[in-house]
C-alpha cells in the first residue's frame, strides 16, 4: 500500500537530482556568487528531503504496520514542507540574481518552491487524518495521498525550470551545495 507513495516520491527525488548535473562552461562570476549563496543554504534542505524520501521508501519496502507508515510519512511530509519553504526563503535572501529579468525569475522560482511546500503540508494533513486501524480505508487513503504527489512536486519542477530559463542553470549546477549524492540502489 505504501509502495505507491515510495514510487511517487522517486519522481520528487528526481526533481532535486536535476540539480546534480554537470556545470556548463565558464559561468559568469556574479551568477556563480549568487548561486553559491543559494546553494549553500539549499544543501542542508536537499539532504533533509533526500533523507525523508529514503524513510518513506524504507517503510514501503518493509512490512511496516499502518501506524508506523502513517507516522513516517507524516514526519517526512513535514520535513519536506519546511525544506521547500526554506529553499524559497534562500532564493529571496540571496538577492536578485544577476540575469535578465532576475527579480521575476527569482520570485517565480520562490513561489514554485512555496507551492510545493504547501502541497506537502496538505499531504501531511491528509496522512494524519487517516485511520490506521481500518486497513482498507487506510490503504485507500494512502493511494489518494500517493496520487497527489505528482501535483505536489510540480511547483518545485517549475521553480527549477524558471531558474534554468532565466540563465541560472549552469551557475547553480556548478555549485557543490546544489549537488545531491544519490544513494546506491538497494535490493528490495
Automatic annotation (TrEMBL):
Highest taxon in the source lineage: Bacteria
PROSITE patterns (alphabetical): PROKAR_LIPOPROTEIN
Protein name: Small secreted protein
Amino acid at each position: 500500500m505504501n509502495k505507491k507513495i515510495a514510487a511517487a516520491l522517486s519522481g520528487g527525488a528526481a526533481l532535486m537530482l536535476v540539480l546534480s548535473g554537470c556545470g556548463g562552461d565558464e559561468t559568469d562570476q556574479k551568477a556563480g556568487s549568487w548561486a553559491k549563496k543559494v546553494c549553500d543554504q539549499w544543501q542542508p534542505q536537499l539532504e533533509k528531503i533526500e533523507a525523508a524520501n529514503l524513510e518513506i521508501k524504507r517503510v514501503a519496502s518493509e512490512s511496516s504496520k499502518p501506524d508506523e507508515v502513517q507516522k513516517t510519512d507524516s514526519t517526512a511530509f513535514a520535513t519536506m514542507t519546511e525544506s521547500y519553504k526554506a529553499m524559497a526563503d534562500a532564493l529571496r535572501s540571496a538577492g536578485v540574481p544577476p540575469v535578465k529579468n532576475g527579480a521575476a525569475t527569482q520570485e517565480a522560482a520562490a513561489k514554485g518552491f512555496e507551492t510545493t511546500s504547501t502541497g506537502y503540508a496538505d499531504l501531511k494533513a491528509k496522512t494524519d487524518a487517516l485511520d490506521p486501524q481500518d486497513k482498507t480505508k487506510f490503504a485507500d487513503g494512502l493511494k489518494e495521498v500517493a496520487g497527489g504527489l505528482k501535483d505536489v512536486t510540480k511547483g518545485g519542477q517549475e521553480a527549477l525550470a524558471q531558474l534554468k530559463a532565466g540563465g541560472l542553470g549552469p551557475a547553480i549546477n556548478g555549485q557543490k551545495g546544489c549537488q545531491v549524492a544519490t544513494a546506491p540502489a538497494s535490493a528490495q
